[in-house]
Design a protein that fits this description.
Strands 1-2 form a two-stranded antiparallel sheet. By secondary structure, it is mostly beta strands. The chain contains 1 helix and 4 strands, in the order ββββα. The mean pLDDT is about 85. The radius of gyration is 16 Å and the shape is elongated. The two termini are about 25 Å apart. The chain has one domain.
Amino acid sequence: MHAEGNGAFGDMPATTKPFKVRGVSGGEVDSAGKATVRYDYLDRLDSMSQVGLASEPGQS
C-alpha cells in the first residue's frame, strides 16, 4: 500500500510525507467456507521511519 501521512496516528502528529506499507495477510475458513479469522502482519517500524516518526534499529 502507498499512502501519505496526512492524519494523526495516536499522539503522533501528521507528517504529510508519503510512505509504503509492506505486509502479509492470512486467515482461517470454517467448514462452510466462511472466513472466520483474518491476520495482518505489517512492518510498522519501516512505515514510521519513512515519515520520520521512528528510527531504524541501529540508528539514532
